[in-house]
């Protein structure tokens, strides 16, 4: 879903940067407030893993492929969507400047779609589902919905940019990302979150930040 | 929960990330991603080739996760370099912000 420079006119790309900037600043404020000696290694390990797994495009049929984004995964581990925004911003910076994956002018839009929208939708869907469905299914559902909504927003941006027609753009982006979201995002997020819940339940969400009692119960439920 | 076991998490994370870096060039699908596929289907040929020929705002040193003339080993190296760069940047960022707190 990395938008290259040529897909959005410069004036619109600047607007997405302006919208993304407060989110980037808030993610840095989250880091200043929440990061400590114990969380920094986890953040770095997740960021590196997400960069590597984003390089692995999964075939989804129709001559199309897709890869994981990972904002929801990070947000769930840290119990905050701001963590997802932060990690995706760092990953996109390296992808854009070193590898030409996603444009520099369009990086604001990419941070907005993949970091903010997929992170926030993914995390709050997870939080909403968790009590009724348990950790694994909530992680799957959140990650899946997060990348789907991000692709819908991306299709609208492409329409505003004059790059895609609206309805065919929505259908194409929506269809592809429903499938990418299933394997590339949903399944991988659910597997990783379930593995962490089993091996290091203390890392997951609430207990990692506040309210340790509550999370313990949910992990074992 | 203590610092030591989180360092273990870090080492496990680095190991998994580097393993993915090595595997990615061999396992990754060469098919275009969702956005590129949509572009291929929705934009008419001449406009699409114009868009694709437009130079990026900044020329990346390792475009498309490859190093010129090095083939698959260059791709492995490029992704591994990227993985370690992300690791170093996020670790450094975390340390700096942590100290300021």
From TrEMBL, chain A:
This is Substrate-specific component NikM of nickel ECF transporter. The keyword Hydrolase does not apply. Keywords: Cell membrane, Membrane, Transmembrane, Transmembrane helix, Transport. It is found in: Cell membrane. One of its GO terms (biological process) is transition metal ion transport. It comes from Methanosarcina lacustris Z-7289. The keyword Transmembrane helix applies. The lineage of its organism: Archaea, Methanobacteriati, Methanobacteriota, Stenosarchaea group, Methanomicrobia. InterPro entries: CbiM/NikMN. The chain crosses the membrane at residues 14-31, 43-62, 68-94, 106-126, 138-164, 176-197.
UniProtKB/TrEMBL annotation, chain B:
It is found in: Cell membrane. Keywords: Cell membrane, Membrane, Transmembrane, Transmembrane helix. Its main location: membrane. The chain crosses the membrane at residues 76-97. GO terms for cellular component: plasma membrane. InterPro entries: PDGLE_dom (IPR025937). Residues 8-98 form the PDGLE domain. It comes from the Archaea. This is Additional substrate-specific component NikN of nickel ECF transporter.
């Amino acid at each position: 879903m990395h938008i290259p420079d040529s897909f959005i006119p410069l004036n619109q790309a600047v607007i997405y940067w302006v919208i993304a900037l407060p989110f980037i600043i808030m993610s840095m404020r989250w880091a200043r407030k929440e990061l400590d000696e114990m969380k920094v290694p986890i953040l770095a390990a997740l960021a590196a893993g997400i960069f590597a797994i984003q390089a692995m495009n999964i075939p989804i049929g129709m001559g199309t492929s897709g890869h994981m984004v990972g904002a929801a995964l990070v947000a769930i581990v840290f119990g905050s969507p701001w963590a997802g925004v932060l990690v995706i911003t760092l990953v996109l910076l390296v992808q854009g400047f070193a590898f030409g994956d996603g444009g520099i002018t369009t990086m604001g839009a990419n941070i907005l779609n993949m970091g903010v929208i997929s992170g926030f939708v993914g995390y709050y869907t997870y939080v909403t589902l968790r009590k009724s469905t348990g950790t694994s299914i909530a992680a799957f559902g959140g990650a899946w919905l997060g990348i789907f909504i991000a692709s819908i927003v991306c299709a609208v941006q492409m329409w505003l940019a004059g790059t895609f027609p609206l309805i065919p753009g929505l259908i194409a982006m929506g269809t592809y990302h429903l499938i990418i979201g299933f394997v590339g995002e949903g399944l991988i997020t659910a597997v990783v979150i379930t593995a962490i819940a089993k091996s290091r339940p203390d890392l997951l969400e609430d207990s990692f930040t506040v309210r340790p009692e509550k999370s313990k119960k949910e992990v074992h439920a | 929960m203590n610092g030591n076991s989180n360092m273990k998490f870090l080492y496990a994370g680095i190991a998994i990330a580097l393993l993915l870096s090595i595997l990615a060039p061999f396992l990754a699908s060469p098919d275009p991603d969702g956005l590129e596929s949509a572009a291929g289907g929705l934009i008419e040929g001449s406009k699409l080739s114009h868009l694709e020929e437009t130079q990026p705002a900044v020329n990346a040193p390792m475009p498309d996760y490859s190093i010129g003339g090095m083939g698959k080993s260059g791709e492995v190296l490029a992704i591994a370099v990227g993985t370690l760069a992300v690791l170093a940047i996020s670790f450094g960022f975390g340390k700096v912000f942590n100290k300021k707190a």
